Amino acid sequence: MPISDTKPEIQAMQDRIIMAMTEEQRLRLALEMCDLSYAFAKAGIRRHHPDWSEEQVHREFLRSLFPPGTAPSGF
Amino acid sequence: MSMSEVLRRVTDALHTTEIQHMLVGSFACSIHGYLRSTAGIDFVIDANPEQLQKLIQELKNKDYYAQTGDALEAWRNRSMFNVMDTLAGGKIDFIFVKPRPYSREEFRRRRRSVFEEISLFVASIEDTMVSKLEWAKLGESARQVEDVGRLLQKISISGSLDQAYIDKWVNELGLISQWSEAKRIAGFE
């Protein structure tokens, strides 16, 4: 078994909870996780560039969603 | 704007343009039981140039960054193109279904699902696994094999899997080592 940061009984409990959800609930949770990761990413950019405007932060965040060097012009 | 709203708007645009679609990748993985964080939404689509032009216009009307030239070039190459919801920051990858037996079968086996009263099609769990194994073979990411291993663990809890179907395509697509590694991660080997 691979190394895990979660006790087996806790993992089993989480698995039971997730598998008891409907597909729609699981999709919603995944989308909310995505929202959260975006919020963290923006917070990180703000921390590194405290002088930037919200627009600059958002623009940098959009650029960060593309692999390096692949963002379309305008981002 | 939330990613839920992004998914709704994009799915709406796909329905409006009558483009056949299939949600794949990490969100499909999450639907099947392994919650996986990701930076974007991936759809496999089957569309003609006229539908693509309508899709891009639909998305531009919703303030998306979307380029007709990118979409048509991807259509010619049977590759992929990106669009971006510039408000939410949601990146959506549209991947053209490949003209090969496995991809056609994968597309045929997609399942209808419902999200906030919008119907959308999702890759089956078996095809979510096979596709991730193939991405791993292409060198995309070791994380893909881990995703398959984690999905296998979830299925052992509550679901069933068409093992013969997976074995068939693992063999035909040359994914035996990736499949073995996924089973090892799941604790099955």
Summary, kept brief:
Chain A is mostly helical and 75 residues long. Helices cover 67% and strands 0% of the residues of chain A.
Which short descriptors sum up this protein?
heterodimer, A: 75 residues, mainly alpha, elongated, B: 189 residues, alpha+beta, five-stranded mixed β-sheet
What does the model show?
The complex is a heterodimer of chains A (75) and B (189). The model of chain A has no long low-confidence stretch (mean pLDDT 85). Chain A is an all-alpha fold and 75 residues long. By secondary structure, chain B is an alpha+beta fold. In chain B, helix 6 packs antiparallel against helix 7. Chain B is globular. Chains A and B meet through helix 1, helix 2 and helix 3 of A and helix 1, helix 2, strand 6 and helix 7 of B.
Helix % of chain A is: 55-70%
Specify the number of helices of chain A.
Answer: 3
Class derived from helix and strand content of chain B: alpha+beta
Helix content of chain B: 40-55%
Instruction: Calculate the terminal CA-CA distance of chain B, rounded to whole Å.
Output: 44 Å
Q: Oligomer, anyone? A: heterodimer
Mean pLDDT across the residues of chain A is 85
What about the largest sheet of chain A?
Answer: none
Q: Helix/strand/pairing class of chain A, anyone?
A: mainly alpha
Which pair of chains forms the biggest interface, and how many residues does each contribute?
A-B, 28 and 39 residues
Estimated share of beta-strand residues of chain A: under 5%
Strand content of chain B: 15-25%
The total strand number of chain B stands at 7
Question: Given the C-alpha coordinates, what overall shape of chain B results?
Answer: globular
Unreliable stretches of chain B (pLDDT < 50, length at least 5) are none
Give the helices and strands of chain B as they follow along the chain.
HEHEHEHEEHEEHHHH
What is the helix tally of chain B? 9
* Rg of chain B computed from alpha carbons, rounded to a whole number of angstroms: 17 Å
Q: What overall form of chain A do the CA principal axes indicate?
A: elongated
How is the main sheet of chain B built?
Answer: 5 strands, mixed
Alpha carbon gap, first and last residue of chain A: 43 Å
